[in-house]
Design goal:
Blueprint (H helix, E strand, L loop, with lengths): L1 H25 L11 H25 L3 H6 L12 H7 L5 H32 L5 H10 L5 H14 L7 H4 L7 H12 L4 H8 L4 H12 L1
Helix pairs in contact: 5-9, 10-11
Amino acid sequence: MATVVSTVAPQQQGAERRDDRKRADDAPRVLRAFRATPFTYATLIVVSALLSTPLVFAVSIALSSDHTVTTNTFTIFPHEFHWQNFTKVFGTDLPMGRFLVNSLIISVGSVIGQMVSSGLVGYAFARLRAPGKNALFLVVIATMMIPTQITMIPQFILFKDLGWVNTYWPLIVPNFFSNAFNVFLVRQFVSRLPSQLDEAAMVDGLGFFGIYRRIMLPML
C-alpha cells in the first residue's frame, strides 16, 4: 500500500504544478504603471524644445519688421514684437477672409473623408475575414510607391471632364476614397486592440458597422 502511494503522489503533484502554471498563463496580465524619473522629464523637455523650434521661429518671423524681412536677419526667438503685422494682412487687397474660409472648408472636408473611408477600410482589413485579404492589403500598400507626378495629369484631365476645375471638389472628394498610409495606420491600431471588444459587442447584438461606429471610431 505504501508503495502505491509513493508512486502516485509525485504524479499528482506534477499534474497540480502543470495546472497551476496553466492558470497563471491564462490569468489576465496586469500592466504596471510607468514611473517617470527626473531623466524622463529632462528628456521630454529637450525633445519638446527641439520639436517646438519651427513654431517659435514662425512666430518670430511673423512679428518681425519690414527691415528684418528685407535683410533676412531672422532669429529663432523674437526680438521684435510688431503685432500690427497681423492686422496689416487683412488691410491689403488680398481676400484673406476668403482664403481662411477655403482652408476651413477643404481641411474639414478632407478630415471627414479620410476618417470615414480610411477608418472603414483599415477596420475591415484588421477584423473581417475574407480570402485574399492579405494580398489585397499588400496591393494597397504598394500604391504608396507610385509617385504623385505620374497621376497628376490624369487626375487633372478627369477633374476637367467632370467640370470640377476651380471648385472645392478635387481637393475634398478624393479623400473619401481612403489613403494607403492612413489605411495602414488604422489597420495597425485596430489589430492591437483585443478581439474581446468585438465579441462582447456581438453578444449585445451589434454588427460590424455598429462595432466600428460605436467602439472603434471613438478610439480612432
